[in-house]
Predict the 3D structure of the following.
Amino acid sequence: MFYREAGQFKTSYQADVAIFPIRQDRIAIALIAVTAFIAIPLLATPYVFTGILIPFLILSLAAIGLNVLTGYAGQLSLGTAAFMAVGAFASYNFMLRVPGMPILLAFIGGGTIAALVGILFGLPSLRIRGFYLAVATLAAQFFILWFLTKVGWVTNYSSSGVITAQPIVILGYAFTTPPAKYLLVLSIVTLMALAAKNMARGNVGRSWMAVRDMDVAAEVIGIRPMRAKLLAFAVSSFYCGVAGALFAYAYLGTVEPEAFNLDLSFRILFMVIIGGMGTILGSFLGSAFVTLLPVLLSVTVRYLDSNLNLHIAESAISNLELMVFGGLIIFFLIVEPHGLARLWQIAKEKLRLWPFPH
Amino acid sequence: MQFFFEVLIGGLLSGVMYSLVALGFVLIYKASGVFNFAQGAMVFLAALTYVGLLEQGLPALAALPATLAVMVVLALVIERVVLRPLVNQPQITLFMATIGLTFFIEGLAQIVWGANVRGLDLGLQDEPIQWVTDTTGMVVSKFDLVAAGVAAILVTLLALFFNRTRIGRALRAVADDHQAALAVGIPLQQIWAIVWGVAGAIALVAGLLWGARNGVQYALTFVALKALPVLILGGFESIPGAIVGGLIIGASEKLAEVYLGPFVGGGIEGWFPYVLALLFLLIRPEGLFGEKIIRRI
Amino acid sequence: MTPARSSGAVLLAVDNISLSFGGVKALTGITFDVREREIRAIIGPNGAGKSSMLNVINGVYHPQQGTITFRGEVRRDMNTHRSAAQGIARTFQNIALFKGMSVLDNILTGRNLKMHATLIEQAIYLGRARREELENRRKVEEVIDFLEIQHIRKTPVGKLPYGLQKRVELARALAAEPILLLLDEPMAGMNIEEKQDMCRFVLDVNEQFGTTIVLIEHDMGVVMDISDRVIVLDYGKKIGDGTPDEVRGNQAVIDAYLGVAN
């Protein structure tokens, strides 16, 4: 009843291709933006920033990166975390070795190095497809982490292999408090998500999807699959690289290569699958889900413990997490392979008709 | 020179262990077209269940069939809950479902049996065979040799099964096209249950051997990841390929670690097999024994 | 009776093309030409090599022997990208649409060679990228109007019935504004009404836009009605070449279709 398109006629192609064509959607987004940029910084506790919001945003960015590669371009990758690592360590080295380097430029530099590495490990995709490619990305995951650990130059010869990220200072203002870091991350992620959405609905996004769906046909209509795939690897790795840099600078503070292990790669893959492959919204939904689930589980366990005297070991929680994630992946693949984003779309369609059944 | 052979043989024998895990993959892929990422988790679960049952006081002779039963039940459940609803979905969907399965099984195994590292004693010691050392001066492990023998027997049995029996033929049909197989009356569900059950049994054998060698711990699941380069070299559908691939990976991994490792600081074993497989794929995308895929348009 | 259509100079000529896969000879010594603005049909029994011929023309297969002359340039073989860039578009026997995208997006991919905005421009979207997007959307809507598929433009292609999918595939080919259109069994699997619609579209494309058309078709009625000249293939060899009437009377062609042993 409220969520109707009736009466909203689009009189130009421009209006039709807009990201939020329906007025109610635009209002909703405006509300979300106000909440995110104004209300939350004023109201949330430090824990909410550092434990929930910041990792949620950063991993959403990484999920967008993976979505570009796996969701849009159809190249399965199990090495997402490795590219994040490249971005983190590259940014660190830019800040360390280039005097007076502005930190935002260092992030971009980190992303660019990650993009180059991504192209290198993406070259096999020109000959290999499907799970073979997935195994090739595992090569990237293991090799890159080994490289970052073994080559002392990368960690500035730190004996423990741990690097301490430099403080974030932009134009003289130090981003040290949780709300400040949150706003910085939010701004970066919002801009990059917008850019990703623009790419996805433009010519490059269509060429990715064409290569994903039938690359031989794509070739016949003039798309160059090789170029499209490498571009996907580059853009994807850039996003993961920046996410990695933010992970080190705005979230962890001190970081070692092991923080970007295979486990994290799988986590991000889960986000993409559960959230919805090939959608930008899905990256956010999936990240929210994967970030919030452990919190939800530990809250539930604590509740059961104190109220019902049902004691569940701490270690069991992480295993429960595994089971829930695993189970949900299977569930989504059976019931709604397009993930939460699709479920959201269906809900909106139902909402459009509400209170009528059809 | 002698050292080289020692390392080589050690590598070959450890490669046999990889082949054992790879065999499970190949079996399932050959018979259902599904790339079962959860094979490693199944190995882990099998090993964990066995030692768990032993800890509970069951004698080995009872624990073994009990574990086998667990694996078979698991196969039935997987068929009913995961495979049947996803009949004829694209391969990539099934692959991702097995990724989900991996995590589910790992979580379940550790919740039920706990996460402590345990040893597994099979009565085989990892010690050198005396007469080999006496005659050639090389150190060859008794354990590794027995493992190789077991693998050889398994491979022969499986190869015979696939190529000589009627069921084997039906399995190959199923791997090609689920719906077509259904259409000609092949009982898909039963076959899948059987296949996954057999893969579970293979996982049990692999689990026992790996567990005895390295201890039963979470890291066992990563060993299974090593089976992937094996499959790439050997092709996903070839039983002899799994063996040859395993040998090559095992040998090259050890040799690389010993001879190239010192130049770059060691720890090559973690990624060398993958990079090797990657390079190999660039030359021959279907693997040593795989079939060339021709796509018509 | 086909109306007299003014055909122009030779647009495409294949000379002595031979193609084999391993030991199988798909095409042997094929020579023919296609004139501008004509509708050329390729007919023949199943397995005669018709689709392979189209694949050679637009660069999916590379012949072992022979040359291809397109727009005056003589070449040993074509490659897919160059043929698309030079104005060859085609449809496929088994529909080759991008199942994950909507009808509109599928047709827009047909215009990918006309869009030049760089990645960064597309990411920012304001400026050249937006202009191109809207211009091309306008062009695509013209094609959509022409083929009467407005009502399904936002539908994911995978959800459409076969006949409509074929029409969308034609739309994608037309969106590229091709000079030469290769159609591989565009009417396969259609009922009479759908076939009539498709015939009408093919004729309209040829008459309104002057597009040269090479089409593979099994329905003899269609072939005789709409084509200017016909080539007949059998077992990879050319056994007939001429107007529909000439070919209809050719004994070799009749034998091939009736299955007389050669």
About this structure: The CA atoms of residues 148 and 212 of chain C lie 22 Å apart. Chain C has two domains: 1-87+178-262, 98-176.
